[in-house]
Design brief:
Elements lengths: L3 H11 L11 H4 L9 E3 L2 E3 L2 E6 L3 H4 L25 H14 L3 E5 L9 H21 L4 E3 L8 H13 L5 E4 L14 H10 L2 E4 L17 H4 L1 H15 L2 H4 L4 E4 L16 H4 L22 E3 L5 H11 L4 E2 L12 H7 L5 H15 L5
Parallel strand pairs: 3-4, 4-5, 6-7, 7-8, 8-9, 9-10
Antiparallel strand pairs: 1-2
C-alpha cells in the first residue's frame, strides 16, 4: 500500500532536492531554496536566537468581535504575522530568518485581551498558547515561544504559565508593560512572579503605549510608538526596581523589549533620587542594592539600531544581559547579526553571547 510517508521517501531517494517544510504545498516545495546564512564568530559556529518576534492566529483574534481589526499593528508586515495559518507565510518567515542569519525565533503575541472578560480572555489565551506550542513542536529547531497570559486575572495567569512551561514546552510568557496603565509591581501580581521564578521562566515585557500621553504626543512621526513604547517599558522596569519586586524575587528573569526603553540610557540618575528627594521615597521599601545594580540582573534585547547604541547598552548592563531582538516581521531591524558583529568594542566571546549563547542560557534552550 502506497502511503504518503512511503511516497515522500521514494521521492527523496530519487532526487537530491529536499523540502524541510513538509506542510507547504507542492508548488512551494519545488521552488529553489535560498542559501541559509550560517553565522560564525572567531571560527566558532553560533546558533543565533532572536527573542523578540511576533505572530498572530486568526481564530484567537476572532473572539475580539468588532475590536478584532484593532489587533493588527498599523505597520508593514501585518500579513507576515500569520505564520501558523498559511504555509506560504511560514515559508516566507523561514526564508527571512535564513537571510538574516537567524537560526531560531522566540515567538510572542502582543497582549490585546487585557480588557476582555474572564471567559473571552481565557479562550483567546488558550488558542494562542495551543497554536504556539503546535508550531514549536513542528519546527523545534527554528521556533520557541513565550506564552500568552490573562494578566488581568492573576490567578488564571499562574495556572496558564505553569501549563505553558511544564506541558507545552514554552519558555516563559510575554506580558504588557502594565495592566492598562496599572503597575505590575503591585502585590496582587506577586503570585505570577513567584510562579515564574519557581519555573525558571522568562517574562518578556513588551509595551503597548501610554494612553495618558496620547494628546501630548499627537502629531507627525508616530510618537505613540517611538516615544510612548520606550517610556512604558522604562516605567515598568523602574517599578520593578523601586517597588522592591526584584528584591522579593531575586531569581526572576525579566527581559525588556527595545533595549529596555530609556532606562539604560540614564540609569545613574536613579541612584540619586531618594537622596535628593527622600519625601518621594517610601521609607518602608529599603532596596538591597543601588538601583543601577538591578540592571545587571535584568535582560534586554538588542533592538537599539546602531553599534554605538549597542556599545552603550553593553557598558551599562553588561554583555551577559543582552540578547538579539528584531520585532520581526515588523521591519524595524533586518540586519541584527551584522549590527552585533559591527560593534568593534565587543570581544568575540561577547558577540557570541549576544548572538545566541545568552538566549540559550536565559531560556533553557536545548543545545
Amino acid at each position: 500500500m502506497t502511503t504518503r510517508r512511503n511516497f515522500l521517501r521514494s521521492v527523496a531517494a530519487a532526487t537530491p532536492i529536499f523540502c524541510s517544510c513538509c506542510l507547504l504545498d507542492s508548488a512551494l516545495a519545488q521552488q529553489p531554496k535560498p542559501r541559509r546564512r550560517l553565522v560564525s564568530v572567531g571560527g566558532q559556529r553560533i546558533r543565533t536566537v532572536d527573542t523578540h518576534c511576533h505572530c498572530l492566529f486568526q481564530d484567537a483574534i476572532d473572539p475580539m468581535g468588532a475590536d478584532a481589526p484593532k489587533v493588527l499593528p498599523p505597520t508593514k508586515g501585518v500579513a507576515e504575522h500569520f505564520i501558523g495559518d498559511r504555509g506560504a507565510v511560514l515559508a516566507g518567515r523561514l526564508q527571512a530568518m535564513d537571510e538574516m542569519g537567524i537560526d531560531m525565533q522566540i515567538l510572542s503575541v502582543n497582549p490585546y485581551w487585557y480588557d476582555r472578560d474572564r471567559e473571552t480572555a481565557v479562550k483567546i489565551v488558550d488558542l494562542n498558547n495551543s497554536h504556539l506550542a503546535a508550531l514549536c513542536a513542528e519546527h523545534p529547531y527554528r521556533f520557541g515561544a513565550f506564552a500568552a497570559l490573562t494578566m488581568q486575572f492573576p490567578d488564571l495567569a499562574v495556572q496558564q504559565l505553569d501549563d505553558a512551561v511544564r506541558n507545552k514546552g514554552l519558555h516563559g510568557a510575554a506580558i504588557g508593560a502594565s495592566m492598562l496603565g496599572e503597575s505590575f509591581a503591585l502585590p496582587k501580581y506577586d503570585a505570577v512572579w513567584a510562579k515564574a521564578e519557581e519555573l525558571g521562566a522568562t517574562l518578556f515585557i513588551h509595551p503597548q503605549g501610554v494612553p495618558e500621553l496620547s494628546k501630548r504626543i499627537a502629531g507627525n512621526g508616530w510618537l505613540g510608538n517611538i516615544v510612548a513604547y520606550p517610556v512604558e517599558t522604562t516605567i515598568a522596569l523602574q517599578h520593578f526596581i523601586f517597588e522592591g519586586t526584584l528584591d522579593k524575587f531575586p531569581k526572576l528573569k525579566v527581559l525588556g523589549a527595545h533595549g529596555g526603553g530609556y532606562l539604560p540610557s540614564y540609569a545613574p540618575r536613579d541612584d540619586h533620587a531618594c537622596f535628593v528627594s527622600p519625601q518621594n521615597c517610601n521609607p518602608n521599601i529599603v532596596l538591597k542594592k543601588k538601583p543601577t545594580e538591578y540592571l545587571n540582573q535584568m535582560y534586554f534585547d538588542s533592538l537599539v539600531f546602531t553599534p554605538e547604541a549597542l556599545r552603550h547598552l553593553v557598558a551599562q548592563v553588561g554583555a551577559s544581559q543582552i540578547v538579539i531582538g528584531t520585532d520581526n516581521p515588523i521591519p524595524w531591524e533586518d540586519h541584527p547579526v551584522d549590527m552585533v558583529i559591527a560593534t568593534k568594542t565587543l570581544s568575540d566571546a561577547e558577540k557570541r553571547a549576544i548572538l545566541g549563547t545568552n538566549a540559550t542560557r536565559l531560556l533553557n534552550l536545548k543545545t
